[in-house]
Amino acid sequence: MAGPASAETLLQTKFAVPAGPAATVVRERLFALLDGGARHPLTLLAAPAGTGKTALVSGWIAEGRAPGPVAWLSLDSDDADRGRFWHAVLEALVRSGAGAAGSLTAPARGGADVALPALADAFGEPEGRVVLVLDDFHEVADVVHDDVERLLRFPAPGLAVIVLTRSEPAIGLDRLRLDEGLTEIRASDLAFTYDETSALVQELGLGLSADEVTMLWRRTEGWAAGLRLAALSLKAHPDATRFIEHFAGTDATVRDYLVNEILARQPAELREFLLRTSIVDLLSGELADALTGGSDGHRSIARLERGGALISDVDERDEWHHYNPLFAELLRTELRFELGHEADGLHRRAAAWLADHGYDAPALEHAAAAGAWELAAELASACWLRLLVRGEMSALGPVLDGMPGDRVDADPELALAFAGALLENGDHASAEPYLRRAQDGEAQVPPARRAHFAAATDFARLCAARLRGEPDEARAAARALLEREHAVEGVPAAEVRSLALGNLGIVELWTGDLAAAADDLERAHAAALEADRDWLVLVAAAHLAVLAMFRSEHARAARRASEAIAVAGRRGWAGTHAAAAAFGVAAALSMHRGHLAEAGALLDRAEEALRGTRDQPLWAVYAFNRALLLADQGQCAEGLDVLRAGRAELGGWPLLAPMSDMIVGLEALLQRGTGERDAALETLERARSEDSSLTIATTVARLRLVEGDPEAARAALAPFLNDDRGEMLYFRAAAWVLDARALDALAEHDGAARSLERALDLADAAGLDRLIAEHGSALRPMLRRHLRTGTAHAAFVSQALSRIDQRDGDGRLVPLLPASPLSGRQQAILGYLPTMMSNQEIAEELSISINTVKTHLKAIYRKLDAPGRREAVLRARDLGLMS
Fold this sequence. Notes:
By secondary structure, the protein is mainly alpha-helical. A five-stranded parallel β-sheet has the order 2-3-4-1-5, with helices on both faces. Strands 6-7 form a two-stranded antiparallel sheet. The radius of gyration is 36 Å and the shape is flat. Residues 1-7 and 809-820 have low confidence and may be disordered.
């Protein structure tokens, strides 16, 4: 059995560059900082425990980027003696093997008085620069800071010092900054970026999805130790998403690390400060004083930052700070154990201070947490419209859940706030009783607040009308609200305008008044930009994207959807109804481009955002897009289920006619795709009897072509082909494509070419290449012939042909597969053509005359654009008419 480690072995570990973690990520941005720092006297890495200081510098050295030999010294509390420290420094330099260090000897005593002159002599020339790394400098800083400051005041040209420490040392940093002799790397620099986190996850072989990586990165805020501790558990956990969602500072490994390395090292007064201030998400010095009853909050925060606690500033003025989420969870747990009796009082203090300083949302949350319902009611009544325009209505959730019912019944302003919160969530049925209670109690509202109450009531009426799909009521409420735009307390007029016009534009959009919707939504968007309110920008941009999609303005739809998604991502609003609208548009655009996997991911995000809302039109549009995607993947039965569920969610909501017709048309196509031919025709006939439209007519034409009846297909389209009627451009182009297919099946090739060119005029200008490509092999011969005979859209046609070729073999909507242009008898004869049978033998097999066979063969060759038997077989296989 091996004995205790020798003194020499221990020394070796003290002077050896630590080996990095098994899985590492090259962090080029930080390596570049170290490269530059090695040209300066000092590089300081000051950050809390677990931020990856040692791993970063050791990795930089391992990559061979140090400018010369490296002397590494790992310090501990035993080195907190001036003589011992300098003895260790010189020993490290001697062991580095640097030529200049050959003259050094480690003095037994004498400390800095001996060491500093020796260093100046040994490293007086810049050639052969040596890097001295002092790891865990906080262990000795109180004892040797004056000596190290002397070293850096007159730095040796051939020596670069790298200090790794948890707390900022008092070694003359301000002078070094002025002299540009200092490179600083702080906790914010060391935090892993999203891309670095993703690379680390991949290196560790965790197999996480992009969403799971994002969730882990946010939970840890890029804290290196948190990422690696999470990785240890993730490797053995069966459900990565669930683990990350619940990964907390109270997990055993994380808790032990945080307690031992950070919390236990704080002085008693700072430890209590940490616990009492942990209840808030953001902390300022004044708020800290309100929570602790002290007067030195700013100084305490600064001490924590210098002392290695996981706290960071969140603004450029260094006014607001927050604890790392994992550290905050640990502190709150410790608060419950040690000072649980103070928790309600702390929440009350936080609520009062935040309310006094205009921070409505967190004030409400803390009032609810403390059960301070009188304060919560006062805040909710006064500020719910302010919360709405800021996108902070979720703050009302705890108040809705916990507020005593009798208090709501007695307070019309509070009842109106409850109605507003429920309406914003799409739940107008639950909001109605509160809205009636508010209107019935208007006389109870103090005179000084009645103007605000009336404006807030107008908005609630507008929102309710939007959710019910009542444009006339919405217009009346919007006009009333706009007349009072200066009456809403704490909400500037531009924000009220955007709120009113945006909600009005949404109901106009969904009920089909697209011209009015465009005008009102554009004005809402402009007012939102004027007010610099991201939430209002998101709402207007998302619905402008939907509007552009209905108009087949794909480029505009893409711009607006991208704008909305960017705002939602930046502000954490990806789970809102407005974001769902933008994701839905982006998914539809991806389907048009043929990017089905991307469309599926976007629809997943739309569905997730919709789970918390009852926005009926958005659910219906989501169901349509999802069903269309499933159909594109050949899953017609599944698509039919999704579509019908969306229609059930819609109920009797008066969705705009083109969208309703699109849903009906897709239902019929899916029914046909599942073999329900009669049901599909019945669905369409019922829709046609109610109100004929181009959207329905194009679906009828598709099915008639599938049935091999091109004349019926043309008859369905005829009333619409030369009549715009304000129909969506997509369906106008689709009608001409279908007319071209029908004419071609009737051998009227010149007319087919003219109709196809009309379709291309519309489709090319709008970028509707999917509309052409989705007809697949049924359109391929016509497109090729069209290229040969001449078209103004040659590039567009070539692109469509390329997409058709790419789609071959993929599952897609059955009714859009090439319909057979052949009659039943012709299809039967076609089946014999790949064999060696003669025309006479085919006639005998089918019990018909040879002349009949020859007549049918001529028709087959004409319909397949084939000169002979072999070419007909090849074309039939290309069209999917035979295996």
